[in-house]
Amino acid sequence: MVMAENFSVTRHNAPIRPDLAQPRMIPLFKSWRRHRTLARAPIPDSLWHAGLAAQPMLIGFNGAERAELRRLATLFLDEKHLHGTHGLEITPAMALHIALQACLPILRLGIDWYDQWSTIIVYPDDFLPRREIMDDDGILHLDESPYSGEAWERGPVLLSWAAMAAGEPLAIHEFVHTLDLRNGVANGMPPLHPEMSIQDWTRAMSRAYDELHARLDRDEPVELDPYAASDPGEFFAVMSEYFFAEPWTLAQSCPDVYGQFRQFYRQDPLARLPRGPDILDVKE
Fold it and tell me: What is the pTM of this model?
């Protein structure tokens, strides 16, 4: 969860090239360090195969995709700092479970799309942020709603292990928030690739978001989680969950959004994930 605005173009919306975002010597050192990590700290085979088996959304991956996911997960576990809180101990299996979901959205984007933050805090269960929020009338209220996840532009990313263990794609949800935040605001428009059209993205996302709102206002049944209607930032995150975990639902309900996501993530989950029993259980 993040605080969001609308699907709008901001001064941050120029496409970001993570590989060009830092001085030249830093990427050279980073490349050397990553080669060393991949050579010296591979994910053990038994842990890797168990981790894959625990993630139904990875069923359709071919050999090349599994190899790239393993490479990204190895780097993710080396470069990010996972901390359990309230007595929670992060086991290797738990860390890999989080890493696999985190690296799925960046499979074709690269690990540098996560270079703005480094810390992940894992709670045993939902947590209470206890912050003040302002309503539409300008009145401040203390927010005491339980959260299962939260993301900030520079970190940390907060996760509920209970939600992860229950099979929810919570890490996907929170980590795609960090992609959205690369523009400086969670407004449902991450930095788009140069070949993509900001107008096409805005049109597809706005129409689908408005239609979801309209159907909910009319008390009509919807296939998508109503939480997606909270704001454009949450719409992007929830639709990304469907894109990776239940792509047939997104393609049928919001085909234009699916098309834009296919361009942005440079993946086509509908082509690799066989339709079957629902494997997505989206929670707030």
Answer: 0.84
Per-residue confidence (pLDDT) for residue 132, from 0 to 100: 60
> In the structure encoding, which two tokens stand for residue 123, read together?
């709670």
What's the rounded Cα separation, in Å, for the pair 193 and 265? 10
If one counts every other C-beta atom within 10 angstroms of the C-beta of residue 174, the result is 25
Only one residue has tokens 């990304």, namely 240
Instruction: Indicate whether 3 pLDDT > 90.
Output: no
Using CA atoms, how far apart are residues 196 and 211, in angstroms rounded to an integer?
A: 23
Q: Can you read off the two tokens belonging to residue 217?
A: 């206002």
The whole-angstrom separation of Cα 168 and Cα 193 is 29
Tell me the torsion sign for CA atoms 35, 37, 39, 44: negative
ω into residue 156 within 30 of 0, thus cis? yes
23: CB partners within 8 A, 6+ apart: none
Rounded percentage of the chain residues whose pLDDT exceeds 70: 83
Rg of the chain over all Cα atoms, to the nearest angstrom: 19
Q: Which domains does the chain have, with CATH numbers?
A: 18-272 (1.10.472.150)
Going across the sheet that includes 81-84, the strands are: 81-84, 119-123, 157-160, 149-151
User: pLDDT tens digits, residue range 150-206?
Assistant: 888 888 999 999 999 999 999 999 999 999 999 989 999 999 999 999 999 999 999
Joined together, the tokens standing for residue 202 give 């805005």
Q: Which residues contact 246 (CB under 8 A, 6 or more apart)?
A: 278, 279, 280
